[in-house]
Amino acid sequence: MFDPQGPSLRELAVQALSSVEHGYDLLAPKFDHTPFRTPDAVLDAVERELRQLGPFDRGLDLCCGTGAGTEVLRAVCRQRVTGVDFSAGMLAQAAAAARADGLAEAEGVAEAAHPTVPVDLVRGDAFALPFAGSAFDLLVSFGAFGHFLPRERPALFAEAYRVLGPGGRFVFPIGAPPPIRSRAYWMLLGFDAVMKVRNAVWRPPFVMYYRGFGLAEVCAELTRTGFEVSLRELTDLGRRADGSPRARAVVATKPYRQGS
């Protein structure tokens, strides 16, 4: 699961016994060499959908980590891109990657699909984003929702709604649950069970669950927040045995209101 440049078992254990913030500070230098990073295939599939939904001007990557999603925004936004995360270590890695990308562009070796778009990296709380209302017309997030308990999602979605302008989109991928007879199903079930035991006996808690972010529940919560919700099949990621897509993009649109 980990390449040779990834964290050791001891490093992962230390991270798992830390808080979420401190754990990601520790993991940040090696995060991109772990399976926790969103795969490029998923990033590319979402980018293709965003190109069809755009154009966009100002994009926000919520819980940006080391900046993989920020690069997606740079490919589809015309004016400015912002990444926000509460881990200083992850933001430092994102900043280093952005500097390297800028240097490559200055030397003329960057891909044309990733134009020179200014990037701001901001340390902040997802429940109290440090931005004015209607600051963005696109918001994305990749791989972060397992760090939020179900009871916390209404506040999270309300902040996403607040910082989007009318007509703005909140877009993120969500995978189909693995079949109950698959090894993946039981691996995820076991992981979540271990995390629940860990959090029951150890402080500070480390919130990281894989099975609590169901499509129907999430769409209902987004609708209650005020979004208009639609789904787009990420067919590039393949289909399951029953013909359904392995993943979809949730597209939550902040509607135009009279007088807005």
Automatic annotation (TrEMBL):
Every Methyltransferase type domain range: 60-172
What is the top-level taxon of the source organism?
Bacteria
GO terms of biological process kind: methylation
Q: Which UniProt keywords apply?
A: Methyltransferase, Transferase
Q: What is this protein called?
A: Methyltransferase domain-containing protein
Q: Which GO terms describe its molecular function?
A: S-adenosylmethionine-dependent methyltransferase activity
Pfam short name (any one): Methyltransf_11
Q: Which SUPFAM superfamilies match?
A: S-adenosyl-L-methionine-dependent methyltransferases
**CDD domains on file:** AdoMet_MTases (cd02440)
Question: What species is given as this protein's source?
Answer: Streptomyces indicus
PANTHER family xrefs: 2-METHOXY-6-POLYPRENYL-1,4-BENZOQUINOL METHYLASE, MITOCHONDRIAL, METHYLTRANSFERASE
